[in-house]
Amino acid sequence: MNKLLIFLLVQTGICFSQTTFPYNKCDDFDWTTVEIKTPRADREAFISSISKGTFFESYPIRRNEFPDYTHAIDFNNDGKRDFIYNGVYPAEGLLIEFHLNLGDKYKSIFTEMGHFCKIDFKDKIIKTLYIAQPGCCADPTTTLRIYNIEYRNGQFEFTRIFQSTMLTETTIPKKFFDELIHFETINDKYYLRSEPEIKDEPFDDFLEKNGNQIGELTKGTKGVALAEQTDSTGRVWWFVEIFPEHKILNNVFYQDSYFEPNDYGRIVGWISSRFVKRL
Predict the structure, then answer these.
(1) Strands 236-242 and 266-272, how do they pair?
(2) E strands present in the chain
(3) How many CB atoms lie within 10 A of CB 44?
């Protein structure tokens, strides 16, 4: 497969595997499953060693908290303690920084915003990152990203392979399908919602939407269903990702006239399973 085709697959959100984002694992990531237990004094020493010229040096009001957000992990199974910082910095949100232990110093190899939902290893080398980034300030959305990590000849390469966006208030199912269901809508004006129920009021002045509506899907919109839930009327709802090439009308994320297929990745929400066909 040539590089151009790989790029197009990543950018359009098309994926032939059954892997997707672990939406139900983002509330409280358990660092003890991946980190090396490290004395606080060692974490303080690490922060001190990288502080010069960084926010660690210029943000003294939170200095005592920095070690609490610092975690030792062996990225490449070389027996050295590398470090991930995932915590506060001088703006809103949480900062993620990876620092590789070179023996005599640390090298920053990756920076992102958000917090972890999951970290995968392969053959004791860090392989995949699942990151959630809630919107800053009054932004009501959360962005989810997956990064693949390649380690070759002593070098790490981080590639974003997945992105989706949802309203932070979206209901997350507790149980997911074993296999994704690919689908296509067969009706126009098919509402994508933040909850598995019909709720068209009251009007939300801030989001400028009715009830739990996210936007309108048109006939022929494609996506994947990850889970289902039945409401009190017996209607079966699917928890879905809408592929990024499809415009969602009157939605809360962007104005129709400013639609760009790859700005938000897949849009996440709930749809009724009644008027869709499986692909």
Answers:
(1) antiparallel
(2) 70-73, 82-87, 95-101, 106-113, 115-122, 125-134, 141-152, 155-167, 181-185, 190-193, 203-204, 209-210, 213-217, 222-230, 236-242, 266-272, 276-278
(3) 15
Using alpha carbons, select from 238, 217, 171 the residue that is nearest to residue 23.
Answer: 171
Query: What is the Cα–Cα distance from 65 to 24, expressed in whole angstroms?
Result: 27
Please give the structure tokens belonging to residue 124: 């004791």
Is 164 in contact with 241 (CB distance < 8 Å)?
A: yes
Which of 122, 129, 175 lies closest to 151, judged by CA? 122
SS3 of 138-180: CCCEEEEEEEEEEEECCEEEEEEEEEEEEECCCCCCCCCCCCC
pTM, 2 dp: 0.88
Which amino acid, one-letter code, is at 97?
E
Report the DSSP beta bridge partners of residue 204. 209
Per-residue pLDDT of the chain in tens (279 residues, 90 and over written 9): 444 333 333 443 434 345 589 999 998 899 999 999 999 999 999 999 999 989 898 888 888 999 999 999 999 999 999 999 999 988 888 999 999 999 999 999 999 999 999 999 999 999 999 999 998 877 899 999 999 999 999 999 999 999 999 999 999 999 999 999 999 999 998 999 999 999 999 988 888 889 999 999 999 999 999 999 999 999 999 999 999 999 899 888 876 656 666 667 999 999 999 989 999
For residue 251, give Cα distances in angstroms to 163, 191, 277.
18, 10, 23
Sign of CA dihedral 21, 22, 24, 30: negative
Strand 209-210 to 106-113 pairing: unpaired
CA distances from 279 to 1, 223, 234, 243, 261 (A): 24, 10, 24, 14, 22
